[in-house]
Design brief:
The complex is a heterodimer of chains A (about 120) and B (about 110). Chain A has about 120 residues and is an all-beta fold. Chain A contains no helices and twelve strands. Classes of the chains: A mainly beta (about 120), B mainly beta (about 110). Chains A and B meet through β5, β6, β10 and β11 of A and β5 and β10 of B.
């Protein structure tokens, strides 16, 4: 069965410090991957995505993520966090079928990011 | 431009009642998805439409849940005989191209079943 694991339910980081949020997946097919952010009362906003090609992808708000096939991981990073980054972060994975097409996304349970002043 | 819109934003109903939730995708987007997000959880896939047809409905939890997209644009998620366990935020997303493509999410409909 397809699954996405975000091992950290909560992470607390000081403002200005670096951040890494972990995401591991288990998929039988070629994956395509996303990171979304959800602020209280807000909808899901796309941070970045990986479909193919360069395994290091850049996103909005200074975020980046690296796809590591050998580790089945797609960790999200930011070199210096801002107080406005406090939110819930979701990793999502879909499968691309060998015959073309794909399916809906499987989301992790999310990581709640807290920023300390 | 206009994003994905969902109506109503909140719906409170009684156990056993029928509800309909509406999604207006971004204009021109061919694919539409429904997800359900329970408190403290990530979104859970329900159904994916490509055009008017359901390309993948494997996420619908049981036959009380049904969705339509008759003209390939607006979609309605229908829940019969609602149960308290159906309480959640129902999210709709659309993408320009068939999956895989970037999905843009609406603000959701919060359903509360009393």
């Amino acid at each position: 069965a397809q699954s996405v694991t975000q091992p950290d339910i909560h992470i607390t980081v000081s403002e200005g410090a670096s951040l890494e949020l972990r995401c591991n997946y288990s998929y039988g097919a070629t994956p395509y991957l996303f990171w979304y952010v959800q602020s209280p009362g807000q909808g899901l906003q796309l941070l970045l995505k990986y479909f193919s090609g360069d395994t290091l992808v850049q996103g909005i708000k200074g975020f980046e993520a690296e796809f590591k096939r050998s580790q089945s991981s797609f960790n999200l990073r930011k070199p210096s966090v801002h107080w406005s980054d406090a939110a819930e972060y979701f990793c999502a994975v879909g499968a691309m079928y060998s015959g073309g097409g794909a399916d809906g996304l499987t989301f992790g349970k999310g990581t709640h990011l807290i920023i300390q002043p | 431009g206009a994003g994905v819109s969902q109506t109503p934003s909140n719906k409170v109903t009684e156990k056993g009642k029928y509800v309909e939730l509406r999604c207006d995708p971004i204009s021109g987007h061919t694919a539409l998805y429904w997800y359900r997000q329970s408190l403290g959880q990530g979104p859970e896939f329900l159904i994916y439409f490509q055009g008017t047809g359901a390309a993948d409905d494997s996420g619908l939890p049981n036959d009380r849940f049904f969705a339509v997209r008759p003209e390939g644009s607006v979609s309605t998620l229908k829940i019969q005989r609602t149960e308290r366990g159906d309480s959640a935020v129902y999210l709709c997303a659309s993408s320009l191209l068939p999956s895989p493509d970037t999905q843009y999410f609406g603000p959701g409909t919060r359903l509360t079943v009393l």
